[in-house]
């Protein structure tokens, strides 16, 4: 019996797959922290003999080369991919025997990248298709982004994605679809839906299979928004052949060392909940609550190569954040500490942040002028925003702090996470700020006037 094990990475919205017949196993798109894959093999008492990459990933550092090196598995990468390491080249329609029970057939599915491959798993005894691993091609209700290789290629890749989806649609309707991206990943062109699907279900509901090419391409390109800046470093790292994640314990951070790091312009990141950060934190430290949003936003905002110190409420929280960061190539922490902000600040005292709701914002605007700063992404802003608000997407904020109006700034996003990051950046720059920790859907309910780019354009 063939068993497909999902290895989830919620912090990046991705999945890897461990597939075994009880004797041998193969892996699709392993993340860099390969200890999870090795544990799956050890638990089942099987040998990993093959590792397959669907594409050169842009959202994380692969563990494929390191996993193959550690297990002796053959490492399959598209023959057309330009890489700096030894691999087993594979091309469209090539069939690989895995043990005696499984066959893996490569299917060229360009769109997310020019050289993207999907892999159909076949039962060697019956020839039936057991599953298809679609990587960043066909996702649940969506497809992979076509713009990660640059704007000059996005229209051609979007058209290729449309054709690739139809090639996958030729598989039996009952074939389970197992994508790598689409569970919150910014590699998804639009928001994916669900946690399981089949070719038949996608043919009924996925725009790439229900729209003609022109409609699909136009809709896809119109829905693209910004993606994390760290993506620019992932493709080159994966083409060069990365090592496994280094999860060794970082140097301990002292109060004096933390103060010196902040004074030197290094990043000191507080992993605790945003409300705990608001109640008391080291002045100049930044709030990146450790959650599923942590990796994307820290990787997006930190100037690449900046020394980084992590502060957490427990050693386990620090270790989990460190693991997340190694997945995007942030390997060498300057230092780390767990404990309390009083310990981290020493004799220097703590800073606090005022936290508010949209109801508080509505009330204060009746009494005094304040700047409302909306740090959501462009498409969120265009759909609906508070009248007279200033819009600076979070990823643009570090370069635009000096452009913001003088005086008190109330910062909001969709749910509070990004607002706290922005608030901590502004406070560290010496601005007077209030963090709105509330759901944006409540803004209209409390009387804040909303508008959209459509209504503004009609009024103009």
Would you summarize the structure shown here?
The chain is α/β, with parallel strands linked by helices.
Give an overview of the whole structure.
The longest helix has 15 residues. Helix content is 30%, strand content 21%. It is of the alpha/beta class and 460 residues long. It has three domains: 238 residues, Metallo-beta-lactamase, Chain A, CATH 3.60.15; 94 residues, Rhodanese-like domain (Oxidized Rhodanese, domain 1); 106 residues, Rhodanese-like domain (Oxidized Rhodanese, domain 1). Strand 2 and strand 3 form a beta hairpin. A six-stranded mixed beta sheet has the order 1-2-3-4-5-6. The chain has 17 helices and 22 strands.
Strand order of the largest sheet: 1-2-3-4-5-6
- Assembly form of the protein: single chain
Estimate the strand proportion.
15-25%
In DSSP terms, counting alpha (H) and pi (I) runs of 4 or more, how many helices?
Answer: 17
CATH superfamily of the largest domain: Ribonuclease Z/Hydroxyacylglutathione hydrolase-like
The CATH topology assignment of the largest domain is Metallo-beta-lactamase, Chain A
Structural class: alpha/beta
